[in-house]
């Protein structure tokens, strides 16, 4: 027997009615392929309905922007497949293995990985988990056969001779290859995280701007609408940081080619403009209006002129930065429908 919805409203208290409404909405979303919950990692009560076929970005009311196709944070110009590869790589043990290959050698006796943390070539395999074997870092021979005649603690004539004979070529080639791969990964990963932190910082800065806007309104009489450009500029920085963050994922998997040269050129241009706009909002704005040593007189002509000049400069720079953002997305392309966006709707 199916219990009609009216039953819950007629015979249940307010708390049970609320739970029933939540259950109905959640069931509708979970069973409907054209409706998805916002995947904001900090939690969100909104869901979005989309019945199209193209890959789009969802701009949720909670301010989280996500990819409809894969449910990850919006990631253009990187494709969903590339993002998945990157996430797997970051969570896998492959980078630990690469680090071990690049920075350690195996003890010749027990084969435990040994890290060289000093300049001396005299290595002692730790007895804790190892075997206590003493050997030369370069040639891996027993240390007892080394001394002044073989080059002392910082050189190894035995290794030099063996290298000329090609005995260590494959080992060194493997280590250099691992080190190169690790260095490349760390280069892209560190910059990926830098822009991620910068993007998240703008959320806090937007809250700070609210207080500054109110102060400028109270002290100098500027209308709130006149100060909207500050929010526009900061949100432009946030959008650029998000795209720049994912350009480093895009670039990591891009083979050396003319396309990569173009990519790096566009990326550099956008990065420079974004950094300059961000600095303008963080430092220049505070220096003009909130410098304790050179405070502007409330409502003065000087304050008004400086405000108008700064607003014009910031607005123009925001527009320029936006053009560079559009250019990199259009020129690089991806499997994402550029410029398409939806707003989330249903909420619990």
Summary of the model, kept short:
With 348 residues, the chain is mostly helical.
Strand order in the sheet with the most strands: 4-3-9
Largest beta-sheet details: 3 strands, mixed
What is the N-to-C succession of helices and strands?
HHEEEEHHEEEEHHHHHE
Provide the gyration radius in Å: 30 Å
CATH topology term of the largest domain: Four Helix Bundle (Hemerythrin (Met), subunit A)
CATH architecture of the largest domain: Up-down Bundle
How much strand content do the residues show?
5-15%
Would you tell me the structural class of the helices and strands?
mainly alpha
GO molecular function: ubiquitin protein ligase activity; zinc ion binding
Enzyme class: transferase
Keywords: Metal-binding, Repeat, Transferase, Ubl conjugation pathway, Zinc, Zinc-finger
Catalytic activity: [E2 ubiquitin-conjugating enzyme]-S-ubiquitinyl-L-cysteine + [acceptor protein]-L-lysine = [E2 ubiquitin-conjugating enzyme]-L-cysteine + [acceptor protein]-N(6)-ubiquitinyl-L-lysine
